[in-house]
Amino acid sequence: MEGWEAPLLIKSDHGRSPPALESVPVTETTRRFRAAAVTSAVAAWALVAVGGIVRASESGLGCPDWPLCEGRPIPDSDRTSLIEFSHRATAAVVTVLVVLVAVMAWRGYQSRRDVLVPALVALGFIPFQAVLGAIVVWLELPGWIVGIHFVVGMVFMAATVVAAAAAFRNPEPLATVGFAMLARWALAAGFALVIAGAVVVSAHADEACGKEWPLCNGSFASGGADAAAQVVHRLLAYTVAALAIVLAVQAWRGLGPRLLGTLPLLAVVAQMTFGISLVLVGQGSAHGPLAVLHVSGAGTVWALLVALAVIAVPSQSAGQPPTLS
Ligand code: HEM
Description:
Elements: H1 31-56, H2 79-108, H3 113-138, H4 143-167, H5 177-202, H6 224-252, H7 258-281, H8 287-311
Helix pairs in contact: 1-2, 1-4, 1-8, 2-3, 3-4, 4-5, 4-8, 5-6, 5-8, 6-7, 7-8
């Protein structure tokens, strides 16, 4: 591994260094490590999407036992068993990839805590998430534990994305301090939005507003607690959309990475379209496919916000155009 040390001393506009990025010694990652880290992050995203297929097709109890499926390692050809089994098989592939990335990071990047720590955190999440998945099956899918399993899955995926994005981190500043702060706010709002979405699903509040958008049962938010949960989800989606617009505009003005600064907006627009369509179609035949698109879209929005927050290393003083290489 070709190594070089470039201590990054990043100062905010007040002359203070943001704690997480202070004096980061940067050892360049190899192409092989980057490929492994990106593959593991993409696989973690696929796991979220396959989890969405399991839920939308109501296959959560397709394998009523765990870790076996109908008493065997590989189930018969029953549709729901195969769908649930595909989730477990994807989880097995993800596990192999996450272990591989953690071992590579441990052996090659002890000095790159920004890479090593998320790689180890992702590894630590695997047994935890597997046990949660088992509890989901044993308790026969109560909404609250399904929601927790989903949110923990998104945090796990975020750890794989952080490791992958950090491996690509440029020692040159890629954003102004303002842009980097905005990216972190968008990340925080995105996480709140993911949790609110999980609450909507756990509470079976997907139809709580009727087939209405932008209104909810004829007014802003009438229909009780379930309708309120869905309206909170909608409001958080609008907040993330507004932040994504500002990030994209700033990225195009040269204050942050142009491509990665724009992608969250594109993903949010698609995701809002899926979410609104879900509400408007109600329980029609398009509901299942739209629900899968909405979960996959949520994973995409979330992954892009995480990657942007990691990559947007601030330049030394606010308002300075970033050095884009
Ligand atoms: C950036 C925008 C959005 C994101 C990131 C997002 C994210 C999510 C997430 C993570 C879930 C939980 C999925 C699951 O556990 O299976 C969810 C569910 C849901 N969201 Fe969104 N959402 C967004 C926008 C919207 C909008 C604008 C609406 C409606 C106007 C909406 C309506 C719904 C509904 C109805 C559900 C329940 C779906 C179901 O029961 O399968 N979402 N959303």
